């Protein structure tokens, strides 16, 4: 039976990890293991995870609301104050950039959805993905900081179609649970010449349509759970609110201190987490 405490824990985990380069899917799988669900995850819990993921989508959409309007031709010409995610007046980011960034990973995820679910959503593949993804991020940042990559895009509005497409292709590897969608796109963006901030902004921005599509697909698979009323509304609302608030705080805080936080710190965290689970949990 699901407990309200599980709702709070999972909401916090989803909100904390969805947009950081540490893999929210991997953390949710590992958290389910610690909560005692393991491979036999209740259908109610799967539906609950859809709800809290939607809460994270809503949080990031609010942060990037001005840029969303701009892409659809509805934004104002002047930049916003406080958290600025659309400060360059050239306004070059458009729907083509977004499509180039999201179509490759969505196509791969759809085509290989069954093998991914059958083989990927268990603990050991997630732990190995944490390690491999951490190494990839470390190498990308080392090349970037070492001056071996020419920086050509300071903000999202400087991104070219070629860069958006390459990032979209690199993002395909994130269908491996535990690798991290945001980690693959931020590091991939830096490898293609984006600034750290531009890479993070683009990663978060294209997460909105990607997560909306993924969540919508999972929702269709779980409609019976919602129709039958087998889900506790209080349980759902608790997780939704917690996930929304934590995700919003994490994204705003991360963007404000972005230049001070290196990818290698997240890589070290991934290595440490994988090592702990290999030593203490995996038998």
Question: Secondary structure elements and their pairing?
Answer:
Elements: H1 4-17, H2 24-34, H3 43-63, H4 65-71, H5 95-111, H6 113-120, H7 123-145, H8 161-170, H9 181-191, H10 196-221, H11 223-227, H12 233-256, H13 263-280
Helix pairs in contact: 1-2, 1-3, 1-12, 2-7, 3-10, 3-12, 5-8, 5-10, 7-9, 7-13, 8-9, 9-10
Commentary on this structure:
By secondary structure, the protein is mostly helical. It is built from 13 helices and no strands. The protein has helices spanning 4-17, 24-34, 43-63, 65-71, 95-111, 113-120, 123-145, 161-170, 181-191, 196-221, 223-227, 233-256, 263-280. The chain is globular. 42% of the residues are buried. Mean pLDDT is 85; it is low at 77-82.
List keywords for this structure.
69% helix, mainly alpha, single chain, globular, 283 residues
Assess the beta-strand content as a share of residues.
under 5%
Biggest sheet character: none
Mean pLDDT equals 85
Fraction of residues in H or I helices: 55-70%
Point out poorly predicted stretches: 77-82
Q: What is the strand tally?
A: 0
Helix count from the secondary structure assignment:
13
**Rounded to an integer, what's the Rg over CA atoms?**
18 Å
Order of helices and strands: HHHHHHHHHHHHH
Distance between the termini: 26 Å
In short:
With 283 residues, the chain is an all-alpha fold. It has 13 helices and no strands.
């Amino acid at each position: 039976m699901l407990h309200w405490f599980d709702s709070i824990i999972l909401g916090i985990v989803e909100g904390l990890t969805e947009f950081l380069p540490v893999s929210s899917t991997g953390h949710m799988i590992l958290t389910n293991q610690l909560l005692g669900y393991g491979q036999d995850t209740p259908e109610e819990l799967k539906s609950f995870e859809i709800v809290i993921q939607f809460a994270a989508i809503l949080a990031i959409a609010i942060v990037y609301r001005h840029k969303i309007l701009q892409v659809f031709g509805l934004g104002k010409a002047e930049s916003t104050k406080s958290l600025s995610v659309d400060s360059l007046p050239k306004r070059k980011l458009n729907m083509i950039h977004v499509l180039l960034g999201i179509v490759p990973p969505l196509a791969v995820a759809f085509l290989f959805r069954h093998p991914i679910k059958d083989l990927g959503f268990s603990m050991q593949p997630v732990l190995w993905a944490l390690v491999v993804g951490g190494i990839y991020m470390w190498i990308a940042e080392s090349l970037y900081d070492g001056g071996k990559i020419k920086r050509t895009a300071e903000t999202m509005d400087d991104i070219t179609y070629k860069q958006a497409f390459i990032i979209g292709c690199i993002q395909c590897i994130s269908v491996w649970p535990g690798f991290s969608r945001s980690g693959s796109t931020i590091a991939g963006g830096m490898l293609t010449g984006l600034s750290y901030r531009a890479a993070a902004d683009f990663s978060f921005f294209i997460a909105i349509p990607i997560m909306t599509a993924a969540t919508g697909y999972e929702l269709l698979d779980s409609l019976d759970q919602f129709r039958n009323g087998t889900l506790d509304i209080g349980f759902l609302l608790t997780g939704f609110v917690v996930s929304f608030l934590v995700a919003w705080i994490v994204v705003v805080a991360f963007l404000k201190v972005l230049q001070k936080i290196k990818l290698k710190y997240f890589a070290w965290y991934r290595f440490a987490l994988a090592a702990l689970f290999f030593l203490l949990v995996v038998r």
